[in-house]
Amino acid sequence: MEKREELYRGKAKSVYKTDDADRLILLFRNDTSAFDGKRIEQLDRKGMVNNKFNAFIMQKLEAAGIPTQFDKLLADNEVLVKKLDMIPVECVVRNYAAGSLVKRLGVEEGMKLEPYTFELFLKDDAKGDPFINESHVVAFGWGTAEQLAKMKELSLKVNDVLSQLFDDAGLLLVDFKLEFGVFSDGSIVLGDEFSPDGCRLWDKDTRKKMDKDRFRQGLGDVIEAYEEVAHRLGVPL
Fold first, then answer.
1. CA-CA-CA-CA dihedral for 237, 34, 58, 206, to nearest 10
2. Overall pTM > 0.85
3. How many CB atoms lie within 10 A of CB 82?
4. Spatial CA neighbour of 177 closest among 237, 71, 101
């Protein structure tokens, strides 16, 4: 597989063309950002940890029948993926109250949500990734009703699979965001990444935060927490 020119440089990953029109290479960098890119730092080992963590999770989801963008690891910080036409909508599943939900509604952090909640956000850093609903997505042409239904179905299946996986590792899957795209055959496929950058994970007994909130809130030991989660899951680093 030949790596060609850079297509896109995000806050933490770079995307490269390959000699296959249906495949891309993702480079996981050590960049760590918060508050829509207003705070950026380099954290040693982060690219490697998130790349291998993501590969592990995506393969678990594939085994559970959830189609993902993942193809294969290429290096410590590079992965080969399917090329998707990304839908600019983030799907957020919340099992416990945290983050923006607490700020918006004034509920207590850590409150168990029964049932879980499912939310949509427009992926637009300049606008602060605003909260949207299904009618917005269809009316503005960001996606179809059928695509949204499939995205929700897959998001809830991801929640079932990963909640159990993390519970077995002594962790609570508090919430997470997912992004989806359309593959060349028209199918809806889970894209982007699943790592502690895009979810909240707490120790089941102590409620210690083991995710990117350690960076957002200045708690320290960010990568050490990511590595501990990986170790508990059995991710080979």
1. 70
2. yes
3. 20
4. 101
